[in-house]
Design a protein that fits this description.
Helix 3 links the parallel strand 2 and strand 3. The chain contains 11 helices and 7 strands. Strands 3-2-1-4-5-6-7 form a 7-stranded parallel β-sheet, with helices on both faces. By secondary structure, the protein is α/β, with parallel strands linked by helices. The protein is globular. It has a single domain, classed as 3-Layer(aba) Sandwich (Rossmann fold), CATH 3.40.50. The two termini are 27 Å apart.
Length: 299
């Protein structure tokens, strides 16, 4: 059930009619969640944890906002402490810390530029210094700079998109792997664009396709160690990435192209990340789970 939300109207209405957002745009990536109108919904108050992650520690990149914040909150409800990696969105990160703490768990904010391998290694080191273990690695950071033609994608943009969306998966996995144990879980955020294609986001979609290949390949490499590797491929989700990537008029109609005729809220993704981190998915590895409002995909 969707929490009450003024831009959805009634729960019955939101199932049948498109939902629009106020036109808005932020000129920087990553954008600030605190400046979004309306703010994304990160927590479903009707979700009750049952100890699925009790005593575990998770590293969540992009954990200051959007899907990452929602996952941090859900993990806290399930009994996990979390470390959140983010670039420089300090106010958003502080809010995630506050919300995780409200559920009685610890949250370590780690500002770092994960495009650099040394920063990724430092993120893992700080987590180990604070918590003494890592059980779940959620890699959720991303940028997107839509262009109408591949001719407009510069070398700098291409490098930044891949260095942000793909390189940290290698850097963080390499740094965390010595600390992971049998039963640990690695989860990445892919995208429906990896399967559907997106003509105005070719470099972004290419990185998300690479995440699918990374997930399947690493899963096979680590299967004998008992470490599971999976991914989530969201459809349209109301996050800071949207208001920074698209112009205001596109934002206004964001999500209506999905069969469910609306964008998801971050909290609607979080239970999938809980499932993949917990023993409930003990026989699942090398897979991508699609949470996309009914979009057609081939997994």
């Amino acid at each position: 059930m969707i929490p009450q939300y003024p831009y959805y109207g009634s729960e019955t209405k939101c199932e049948t009619e498109p939902v629009s957002f106020p036109p808005q745009h932020q000129d920087r990536q990553p954008a600030f969640e605190y400046a979004m109108v309306p703010p994304p919904i990160s927590d479903n108050p009707q979700y009750r944890g049952s100890g699925k992650l009790q005593g575990k520690v998770a590293v969540i990149t992009g954990g200051d906002s959007g899907i990452g914040r929602a996952v941090a909150i859900a993990y806290a409800k399930e009994g996990a402490d979390v470390a959140i990696g983010y670039l420089d969105e300090h106010e958003d990160a502080a809010e995630t810390v506050r919300r995780v703490s409200a559920y009685g768990r610890r949250c370590l904010p780690i500002p770092s530029d994960l495009r650099a391998e040394a920063s990724a290694a430092e993120t893992v080191r700080k987590t180990m210094d604070t918590f003494g273990r890592i059980d779940v690695l959620v890699m959720n950071q991303a940028v997107s700079y839509p262009k109408k033609s591949i001719l407009n994608i510069s070398e700098d943009q291409l490098d930044n998109t891949f260095r942000t969306n793909i390189y940290p998966l290698f850097f963080l996995t390499k740094a965390a792997l010595p600390h992971l144990r049998r039963g640990s879980s690695i989860i990445s955020t892919a995208s429906a664009t990896a399967y559907e294609g997106e003509p105005n986001q070719i470099d972004y979609a290419a990185t998300k396709g690479a995440i699918v290949a990374f997930t399947r390949s690493l899963a096979r490499q680590l299967i004998d160690s008992g470490i599971r590797v999976n991914a989530v491929a969201p459809g349209p989700v109301w996050t800071p990435l949207i208001v920074s990537a698209f112009p205001a008029e596109v934002v206004k109609k964001f999500g209506v192209q999905a069969p469910m005729k609306r964008a998801a809220q971050p909290f609607e993704l979080a239970p999938t990340y809980v499932y993949l981190a917990s023993d409930d998915s003990s026989y699942v590895t090398g897979h991508v789970l699609h949470v996309n409002g009914g979009m057609s995909t081939v997994s």
